[in-house]
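Exercise 7.
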Amino acid sequence: MKHILPLVFLLFGSAVVAQPHVQLSENSTVSLITCGPGTELYEAFGHTAIRVSDPASGFDIVYNYGTFDFNQPNFYWNFVQGRLLYFLSLSRYNNFVAAYQYYNRSVREQYLNLNLQQRQAVLDKLTWNAKNENREYMYDYFFDNCSTRPRDVINEALGGSIRFDSTFLGTERLSIRQLTDLYIRQEQPWGDLGIDLCLGARIDKPATAWEYMYLPEELERAFDHASIVSDSVDAPLVSRSTVVYEAQPMKEKDNWFVPQVVFVALLLFSSVLLTFQRVRGKSTRCFDGILFLFTSFFGFNAIFLWFFTTHYIAQNNWNLVWALPTHAIFGWALLKKNRPAWVRYYALFVIVVSTALLVGWNFIPQLLHYSLRFVVLLQMFVAVGVFRLSRTSVGSK
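Solution. The predicted structure, written as tokens, is:
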């Protein structure tokens, strides 16, 4: 969800300084702009911005809450810690659209059904928000981003008079993780795996209608089903919609290099190789040790995100069941020629936990990535070999 300003956006010199005390005319408009997904992971969810236009004065500015500065102090550490500052930037409408056309990303516009006083209130709110001392905010992937900010700013400027009708969503609500999967599982399979590894069970409960709007296209749908309440009379929030640019169809590429294919191939190849080595009496300690050292890394990552960052959506991460940090000690012991006696009992522990996880996969409160089943199977296969070899070694003494 890191919406970087496109390169062309910058080349056109689109950034402008906020114009204070702009008085709108009767011909002015306020609209919500929704941009379609792009090809990169940070573009996969689309983008939202607010346009304020007044032909009488030539004022035509897009307000964009999806920008950040790579040069801000401690940028990468703040990103890891979940303390990344985003800010409101301004650009000329024509340049904004040209950038998205260049990258073949659709642009749609919803004109809001506001009177002059309401349009002025929105502009005044945006103008105040664009001041240097007010423009920054602490970004949150799902609850305070480039989509939720425009919604909140418009609603606050209108005194909370927007009424969202969520009945169009139905009663069976998806979770935030499932909504995210709709956008990246096919196009960004490794990014999807990374998100599922890092984020915990907090995003696996059914999302509320309000939470759906973290996605620009869901916010667009919500505006189409919203109304403004004034003097006990409801009027549609959107007066008309237009397609500014329709993205051209792209030829889909056949992508076999996805987590499920890779992990299945690894499981099959490793199973055959390890079985062959064991039958020949050859040691598999390097593979055994490296496997558990590698999987322990994801456990340490989950612990770090859970306890040492502000990413509260990384809490309660059930990936720790198969990626325990203690696997690092087990893996290190497996690399030794003379393995300590306790590895047999730890291998049995891995077998029991892996079996329980595979049996209860669909019942735990977190939707684990489907491809990880094959990693768990591989761990169990290796653990069975370690357990049997250790029993044989103990029995021969």
